[in-house]
Design a protein that fits this description.
Length: 1326
C-alpha cells in the first residue's frame, strides 16, 4: 500500500491518529458533537499534509509531545482526542482511547508528565483518561486500563509525582467499584504491573528496562477468588500480556535521538517536592516524615551510568513517593462512625498486595541504598505494626508474605524490626496451641516451612537473636512452638480444634522440624566442603556461601548480607558467639532464679560475674534488665536486710525528679516495679522516695515528711479509685480533707491537691507492663514481649472478623524510638557466621524438642507421609550430631530409630517400622565415619533382621549347628529342628518362633527370652505378615553395610569392629538361642580390612584378639569351638600375606591361640587349637616368620597337657617341623631357635609316653648337630650380609666375628640346659 493510501498521511503520527479520528467522526452525534467533528476533520487534513518521518526533522524539533511534530502542531493534532475524552460518550471515547494506546505503545508520545502547567496537552489527556471511568461502560473501563498501563510502560514517557499517583488512584477506584469481576481483576493486574514497571526502573535507575509480566493467578492467591468469572484469570493475563508486548522494541534509534534529556534530567523538579508536601499534610503527625528535598538530592545519580541516561534520580523519587503512598493507604483504618467499612478494607488489602509485589521483586538497591532501607523501616514496618491489630485473614496472610520477603532479602538491615515482628506475627500464633485460628496457624506453619528450607536464614536467626542478650530467643521459641504443636493440646485442656485440624497441625509442625534439621545439615556440609577446598579454590569459596536454597525467584537467592555487608554486617567466629550465647544463658538462668527467690538470684548473678557486688550495680540491674518479675523487684526492694536497703536507696537515687510534678514523679517511679503488699515495705520505699523527691525539688515542700505523707495518700487514692472491690469511692473533698495539715502543720493548696486527685482518678498509676506505653521492662510471658504490650493487647483482644482498629499513635512513636535507640547499639550489628561449629549450639537447643516431636509422631501416627518426614528428620539429626561429634545427642537419635524398628517385637511391626529399618541402614551407610559407639544399636538391628529372615525362610536356628552331633539320632533331630517356610505354610510350634512372636524389650539380649504366656493365632498371623514386609530389605542391603566397612576411616573401622564384637558376644552368650551371624560378619570384616595399613590393622586386631580370647574361653563348648574355627579361617587368610623380617605382626595375630590354649579348661578346645596350628603351619610354612614364637608357645603348653592325644598330636607336628622345615625356623628370627629348643625340652618331660621324651631328646641332639655344623650361624651371617654392612679396613669383619661368637654361645645355653634336664629325668632311657 502506498503512502497516499494511509488514512492520516504518511507520518507515524498520522497512521496512528487517522483511522481513530475517522472512527470518531463516524460515531459522533453531529448535533451534539459538531465541534468535535470539525476538529477531527481539520486534524485529518493537517495530517495529510505532513511529510513522512525524517530523523533530521525529529532532531530539529524538541520539547514536542508528539514525535516529528512541533509543539503547536502536536497540541492541534491531539486536541480532538481531548475533546472526545471529555464528551463522556462511549462510542466516541472508545476510539479515542484506542488512539492513545497506539501512540503510547509506539513511543510517539514523549516527555515528562508530572505536576506540570495545566496547559500541557499530555497532562490534560491523562487527566481526561482517568475521568472516563465515571462513564459506566465496561469496555471503556478496560480500554482506559489499557491506556494507563501503556503510558506507564512507555520508555519515552516519564510519568511523575501527582500524575503517577493519580493513575494509581484511578486503577484503585476501578478495582474497588468496577462494573464486573473481570474488570476488577484487570484493574488489580494493571496496578501490579505498574508497580513492576516503576520499581524495575528504580532498580536500574533507567527508563529502558526489561520488565517481567505479572502473574494474575498469583495475585489472587489470598483474595478476590470470588471475582473470577470462569475465564477471567485467563482473560486478564492475556490483557496484560498484550499491553506489555505492544511496547516491546520501543524506543528505537529515531525516538532516542529526539528524547528531551535536558528536560528529564533537569526538569522543574517541583513535581516530587510539591507532591511530597501534599502527601505529608495528611499523615505528618502520624508518620513523622522527615524527608526533605535536600535529603532526596543525596540519591541523584546513584546507579546511573552517565549523565545522559533517561530519568536519573527522578525515577527513584517517584519510587519513594509511590511506596510511601501505598504504605499510608495500607495504614488507613475505619472510623468509629463506620467501623465496618468494606471498601476501605479492600483498599487496605490491595495496597498490601501491591507492597508484596514490590518486595517480592525488590533487588539490590533496596539493600544497598540507605534511603530505600530507611523507607522500609519508616513506612512498611510501621504499616505491618499497625495492621497486626487486625484479625482479617487476608491481611494476616499478606503480612506474613511481606515479612517473609523482609526476612529473606533485608534481614541484615532490619535486625531490630525483625526481632519485634517475629514474635508478634509468627510466634504469637505458633505458641497458641489450644485455641488458635486454623487458617492463621496454617499460614504460620507454611511460613516456617518456607524459611526452614533456607539454611542460611535458620543459622542467621540463631546467631543474631538467640546469641544476642538484648534479643528474643527466636530460634528456640520456633522449635519449642513446633514441638507443642506436634504434641497437640495437653490432655484435659479445652480446644477449639477438630481432630482433623489437630492432626494437620501435628504433621505440618513435624515437617517444619524435619526441614530445619535438614537445612542445618545441608549448611554444615556446604561449609565443611568450602573449608576443605579453601586452599585450592580460594577464589571460589566466597561465592559458595551464596548458593543456598531459594524461596522466591532467582533474585531472592542472594543472601542480603552479601549485598549489604558494608552497612551493618560483620563476620563472627563461632567462639565469639559461643561466649555471647553462654553469657545469655547464664543471665537468663539468674533471672529465672531471681523471679523465684530474689536473694538467691542476685547471689548467683554476682558469683557468675553478671552483676557487680555494689548496691549501685544491683540497682542498675533491677532497673534496666528485661525479664525480671516486677512484683519480685518490689518485694526485694522492700526487704529489711542491710544490703537490700542499700540497693533500694541506690535504686531510688538513680531517678531524677527535678522539675517534675509530684503525681508525675510517683507515676514515673512506680512504673518499673509493683509495690509490695506489706505496709512496712511500702513505708520504707515511699520514705526514700519522698527524700529523693525533695532533694531534687528543694522548694516543693517544707520537709520530706510532707512528701512522704502525700505519697502514701496518693497510693491509697489510686487503690481506692481503681479497685473494683471498693464500693464507696473517695471524693475530691475527702482527699483534700485527709491531707489537711501535712505540710508541717499547714495545708497544701487545694488547687494542687485537686489537680493531683484528678490526675490519679483519670489515669491509674501502674507499671509499664500494665500500661499501653511500652517501656524497657520485658518478661518472657507473651503480653510483655519486647515491650510491645499495647500492640499485643490489640492483637489478642476480642475483635470481630472485619473490625479494623487503629493502633495507638503514642505507642507507634514509642516503638519507633525503640528502633532508633537500639540502632546505635552493638546488638544491632548483623553477624554472619561461616564456621560450622555454630551448629553445636543450635543442636543443644533443638535436639530435645525434635527428638520428642519425631518420636511421638512416629509412635502415634500411621500416616506414611508424616512418618517418613519423622524418619528423614531422624536421619538428618544423626548426620548433624555425628559430624559435630555430639555423642549424647547422636546416640539418643540412633537409639530412638532403632527402637522404632520394632525388630524386638516383630508381631507388632507395621510398614512404618520397616521404613525405620531402611532408615537405620541408610544411616549406617551415609554416616558410618562418625557413628562411633552408636554402631552397636545399628548392628543389633541388622542382627535381628537376619534372625527374622531366617525364621521366615524356615532355616534351622544357629543353635542346631552349635550342638555337637552324635550319630544318626542327632542327625535326625537336626532335621526335625528345621521347619517349613513360615511365609508359605504357616508356622509350627517352634520355641524360637514362639519367643520371637511373644516379643521382648528393646534392650533384651534375646527377643522374647523373658516373656511368658501363650501365643495367639492372631499374633502368629501378624508375625507372618510382618515377615513378608521385611522382604523389602534384602540380603544386599544388609551385606552392603558390612562391605562398606572398607570405606570407613581409621577411627570409624575400629569403632565398627568394637560394636560388632559386642553384638556378637550378646548373640553367642544367649542361653536359649546362641547365634553366629555377627561372628561370621567379623570374619568377613577382618578379611575386607586386612589390607589396611599396619597401624590401623593393629588397632583392629587388638579388638578382635580380645574378642576371640573372651569367646574362646566361653563355657558353651560349641560356641568356643565355632569361634576358634573362625579364628583359624582368619589366620589362614592372614598367613597368605608375606611378612618382612624383624616384624611381629604374625606373632600378635596368633596370640589368641596361645592365650586360649593356656587358659582353657576344655580338652576339646585345646585339641582343636593344636590341630588348627598344625594345619596352618604345615600349609603356610614358607610364610611363617614371627608366628613361630606363638606356634612353639602353643606346642609348649600342649606338651604339658593332661590329655595324651593332645601331647601326641602336638609332638607329631613338632617332629615334622624339625625334620622337614628346620631351616624356616631360624630364617628371620634367632630367638625362634631358642623357643623351639624350649618346646622340645618340655616334650622331654612328657609323662604319657617315653617314646615322646626320647624322640624329643633326639631332636635336641639334632639341633645341637645343626648348631655345631654352623647351620644357624650361616643363616645369621646371611642376614648380616643382607644388611649390607660396609667393610672398612677389616672393622666390619671383626664385628661379625664377635657377633658370631656371642650368637653361638647364646644358642648353646638353652640347648645344653635342656639336655641336662632331660638326662636328669630319664637316666635309664638315656
Amino acid at each position: 500500500m502506498s503512502a497516499s493510501q494511509y488514512l492520516g498521511g504518511p507520518s507515524s503520527c498520522g497512521r496512528a491518529l487517522g483511522p481513530c479520528l475517522d472512527k470518531i467522526v463516524k460515531n459522533a452525534a453531529w448535533r451534539k458533537h459538531s465541534h468535535l467533528v470539525l476538529s477531527c476533520k481539520s486534524v485529518l487534513d493537517k495530517l495529510e499534509s505532513l511529510p513522512a518521518d525524517s530523523i533530521s526533522i525529529s532532531i530539529s524539533i524538541s520539547h514536542s509531545p508528539l514525535f516529528s511534530l512541533s509543539p503547536s502542531d502536536a497540541d492541534f493534532v491531539l486536541n480532538p482526542i481531548l475533546l472526545a475524552l471529555d464528551s463522556a460518550y462511549p462510542k466516541v471515547v472508545d476510539p479515542a482511547l484506542e488512539c492513545l494506546f497506539k501512540l503510547f505503545s509506539s513511543g510517539l508520545i514523549r516527555g515528562e508528565i508530572g505536576h506540570t502547567p495545566p496547559n500541557l496537552i499530555i497532562f490534560k489527556i491523562i487527566e481526561s483518561v482517568c475521568k472516563v471511568c465515571g462513564i459506566g461502560d465496561e469496555a471503556v473501563e478496560l480500554s482506559m486500563l489499557r491506556v494507563l498501563l501503556s503510558a506507564v510502560r512507555s520508555p519515552c514517557v516519564l510519568i511523575r509525582g501527582e500524575c503517577l499517583v493519580h493513575i494509581v488512584r484511578t486503577c484503585y477506584n476501578i478495582y474497588l467499584g468496577g462494573l464486573n469481576g473481570t474488570n476488577q481483576i484487570c484493574a488489580k493486574s494493571v496496578l501490579a504491573q505498574i508497580m513492576l514497571v516503576v520499581f524495575t526502573r528504580v532498580e536500574e535507575d533507567s527508563m529502558d528496562v526489561n520488565v517481567k509480566t505479572v502473574s494474575v493467578g498469583e495475585l489472587l492467591q489470598f483474595t478476590d477468588k470470588n471475582l473470577n468469572e470462569g475465564s477471567s484469570i485467563h482473560f486478564c493475563q492475556n490483557f496484560v500480556n498484550e499491553v506489555m508486548a505492544a511496547s516491546e522494541g520501543v524506543p528505537d534509534d529515531r525516538l532516542l535521538h529526539n528524547q528531551p534529556t535536558d528536560e528529564l534530567q533537569n526538569g522543574s523538579g517541583g513535581a516530587g517536592d510539591d507532591d511530597d508536601k501534599v502527601a505529608e499534610e495528611d499523615h505528618k503527625s502520624e508518620l513523622g516524615n522527615k524527608e526533605t528535598n535536600g535529603e532526596a538530592d543525596t540519591d541523584v545519580g546513584v546507579g546511573a551510568s552517565g549523565g545522559g541516561e533517561v530519568g536519573g534520580s527522578k525515577i527513584r523519587e517517584d519510587g519513594f513517593l509511590l511506596f510511601r503512598n501505598l504504605c499510608k493507604l495500607s495504614m488507613k483504618f475505619s472510623s468509629q462512625e463506620t467501623p465496618d467499612d468494606q471498601i476501605l478494607l479492600r483498599g487496605k488489602i490491595l495496597s498490601l498486595e501491591l507492597l508484596k509485589v514490590i518486595m517480592d521483586n525488590g533487588g539490590p538497591v533496596w539493600r544497598n541504598n540507605e534511603r530505600f532501607l530507611n523507607t522500609i523501616k519508616q513506612f512498611l514496618c510501621l504499616s505491618l505494626i499497625k495492621n497486626t491489630a487486625l484479625s482479617v485473614m487476608a491481611i494476616f496472610q499478606l503480612q506474613c508474605s511481606i515479612f517473609m520477603m523482609l526476612l529473606v532479602k533485608f534481614r541484615s538491615g532490619l535486625k531490630e524490626e525483625i526481632g519485634i515482628f517475629f514474635p508478634m506475627l509468627v510466634l504469637r500464633v505458633l505458641e497458641n496451641v489450644n485455641q488458635p485460628s486454623f487458617l492463621q496457624k496454617m499460614t504460620v506453619l507454611n511460613f516456617l516451612d518456607k524459611i526452614s528450607q533456607d539454611s542460611q536464614i535458620i543459622v542467621d536467626i540463631f546467631v543474631n537473636y538467640d546469641c544476642d542478650v538484648d534479643a528474643p530467643n527466636i530460634y528456640e521459641r520456633i522449635v519449642n512452638g513446633l514441638l507443642k504443636t506436634a504434641l497437640g493440646p495437653p490432655p484435659g485442656s479445652t480446644t477449639t480444634l477438630s481432630s482433623v485440624q489437630d492432626i494437620t497441625f501435628r504433621h505440618e509442625s513435624v515437617k517444619c522440624l524435619a526441614s530445619i534439621i535438614g537445612s542445618m545439615g545441608a549448611w554444615m556440609d556446604q561449609k565443611l566442603r568450602t573449608k576443605d577446598s579453601y586452599l585450592s579454590k580460594s577464589s571460589e569459596s566466597s561465592t559458595s556461601t551464596e548458593n543456598h536454597s531459594t524461596l522466591n525467584g532467582d533474585d531472592a537467592s542472594a543472601p542480603d548480607y552479601d549485598l549489604h555487608s558494608e552497612m551493618n554486617s560483620e563476620m563472627s567466629d563461632a567462639a565469639t558467639l559461643e561466649q555471647r550465647r553462654a553469657y545469655k544463658i547464664e543471665l537468663q538462668k539468674g533471672i529465672s532464679i531471681f523471679n523465684r527467690k530474689p536473694s538467691k538470684g542476685i547471689e548467683f548473678l554476682m558469683n557468675a560475674k553478671k552483676v557487680g557486688g555494689s548496691p549501685e550495680e544491683v540497682a542498675t540491674f533491677l532497673k534496666n534488665t528485661t525479664g525480671l518479675n516486677e512484683t519480685v523487684i518490689g518485694d526485694y526492694l522492700g526487704e529489711r536486710d542491710v544490703f537490700c536497703l542499700r540497693v533500694m536507696h541506690a535504686y531510688v537515687d538513680s531517678f531524677n525528679f527535678k522539675e517534675m510534678d509530684f503525681g508525675e514523679a510517683i507515676r514515673f517511679f512506680l512504673r518499673g516495679f509493683r509495690l509490695p503488699g506489706e505496709a512496712q515495705k511500702i513505708d520504707r520505699i515511699m520514705e526514700k522516695f519522698a527524700e529523693r523527691y525533695c532533694k531534687c525539688n528543694p522548694d516543693s515542700f517544707t520537709s520530706a515528711d510532707t512528701a512522704y505523707v502525700l505519697a502514701y495518700s496518693v497510693i491509697m487514692l489510686n487503690t481506692d479509685a481503681h479497685n473494683s472491690m471498693v464500693k464507696d469511692k473517695m471524693s475530691k473533698a475527702d482527699f483534700i480533707r485527709n491531707n489537711r495539715g501535712i505540710d508541717d502543720g499547714k495545708d497544701l493548696p487545694e488547687e494542687f491537691l485537686g489537680t493531683l486527685y484528678d490526675q490519679i482518678v483519670k489515669n491509674e498509676i501502674k507499671m509499664s507492663a500494665d500500661s499501653s506505653v511500652p517501656q524497657g521492662k520485658q518478661a518472657n510471658s507473651l503480653n510483655k514481649l519486647l515491650g510491645l504490650d499495647g500492640i499485643l493487647n490489640l492483637v489478642t483482644g476480642k475483635q470481630t472478623e472485619e473490625k479494623a482498629l487503629g493502633a495507638n499513635g503514642l505507642l507507634i512513636r514509642q516503638i519507633q524510638e525503640q528502633f532508633k535507640a537500639k540502632s546505635g547499639k552493638s546488638g544491632s550489628i548483623y553477624h554472619v557466621v561461616t564456621d560450622a561449629a555454630i551448629l553445636r549450639f543450635m543442636v543443644e537447643v533443638c535436639w530435645g524438642p525434635m527428638l520428642a516431636a519425631f518420636s511421638v509422631t512416629l509412635d502415634q501416627s500411621d500416616d506414611r507421609l508424616a512418618t517418613s518426614q519423622c524418619l528423614q528428620g531422624f536421619q538428618c539429626a544423626v548426620h548433624v550430631t555425628a559430624v559435630m561429634s555430639m555423642q549424647t545427642q547422636r546416640d539418643a537419635f540412633v537409639t530412638s530409630v532403632a527402637k522404632f524398628t520394632y525388630l524386638h517385637c516383630a508381631a507388632d511391626m507395621k510398614l512404618k517400622n520397616v521404613d525405620a529399618v531402611k532408615a537405620i541402614i541408610s544411616i549406617a551407610i551415609e554416616d558410618g565415619n562418625n557413628l562411633q559407639d552408636a554402631w552397636e544399636h545399628i548392628l543389633t538391628c541388622l542382627s535381628r533382621i537376619e534372625h527374622l529372615q531366617l525364621l521366615g525362610e524356615g532355616a534351622p536356628p544357629d543353635a542346631s549347628y552349635l550342638t555337637p552331633s552324635n550319630g544318626e539320632t542327632d542327625e535326625k533331630a537336626l532335621k526335625s529342628i528345621g521347619h517349613p517356610s513360615l511365609k508359605k505354610k504357616g508356622t509350627l510350634q517352634n520355641p524360637a518362633v514362639m519367643a520371637v512372636v511373644r516379643g521382648g524389650s528393646y534392650d533384651s539380649t534375646t527377643v522374647g527370652v523373658n516373656s511368658l504366656g501363650l501365643v495367639t493365632p492372631g499374633q502368629i498371623i501378624n508375625f507372618i505378615s510382618n515377615l513378608n514386609l521385611l522382604d523389602q530389605i534384602g540380603n544386599f542391603e544388609l551385606n552392603h553395610v558390612f562391605a562398606n566397612s572398607q570405606r570407613l576411616n581409621s577411627e570409624a573401622i575400629v569403632a565398627f569392629v568394637k560394636a560388632l564384637c559386642k553384638v556378637s558376644i550378646s548373640e553367642l552368650q544367649s542361653p536359649t538361642d546362641p547365634r553366629v551371624f555377627s561372628l561370621t560378619k567379623i570374619v568377613e570384616i577382618a578379611h575386607y580390612n586386612m589390607n589396611r595399613i599396619r597401624l590401623v590393622w593393629s588397632r583392629i586386631w587388638n579388638v578382635l584378639s580380645d574378642f576371640f580370647v573372651s569367646v574362646g574361653l566361653s563355657e558353651n563348648l560349641s560356641v568356643a569351638i565355632f569361634v576358634m574355627d573362625s579364628l583359624r579361617q582368619l589366620a589362614m587368610k592372614f598367613l597368605e600375606r608375606e611378612e618382612l623380617a624383624n616384624y611381629n605382626f604374625q606373632n600378635e595375630f596368633l596370640r589368641p591361640f596361645v592365650i586360649v590354649m593356656q587358659k582353657s579348661s576344655s580338652t576339646e578346645i585345646r585339641e582343636l587349637i593344636v590341630r588348627c596350628i598344625s594345619q596352618m603351619v604345615l600349609s603356610r610354612v614358607s610364610n611363617v616368620k614371627s608366628g613361630w614364637k606363638s606356634v612353639f608357645m602353643v606346642f609348649t603348653v600342649a606338651a604339658s597337657d593332661e590329655r595324651k592325644n593332645v601331647v601326641l598330636l602336638a609332638f607329631e607336628t613338632m617332629e615334622k617341623i624339625v625334620r622337614e622345615y628346620f631351616p624356616y625356623i631360624t630364617e628371620t628370627e634367632r630367638t625362634t631357635f631358642t623357643d623351639c629348643v624350649r618346646c622340645l625340652t618340655t616334650f622331654t618331660n612328657s609323662r604319657f609316653n617315653s617314646d615322646v621324651s626320647l624322640n624329643a631328646i633326639a631332636f635336641l641332639r639334632f639341633c645341637a648337630l645343626k648348631l655345631a655344623d654352623g647351620g644357624l650361624i650361616c643363616n645369621v651371617k646371611s642376614r648380616v650380609d643382607d644388611l649390607s654392612i660396609p667393610i672398612v679396613d677389616g672393622i666390619a669383619l671383626d664385628v661379625e666375628n664377635h657377633s658370631n661368637q656371642d650368637d653361638h654361645a647364646s644358642f648353646w645355653i638353652p640347648l645344653l640346659t635342656g639336655n641336662l634336664l632331660s638326662r636328669k629325668e630319664l637316666p635309664y632311657a638315656a
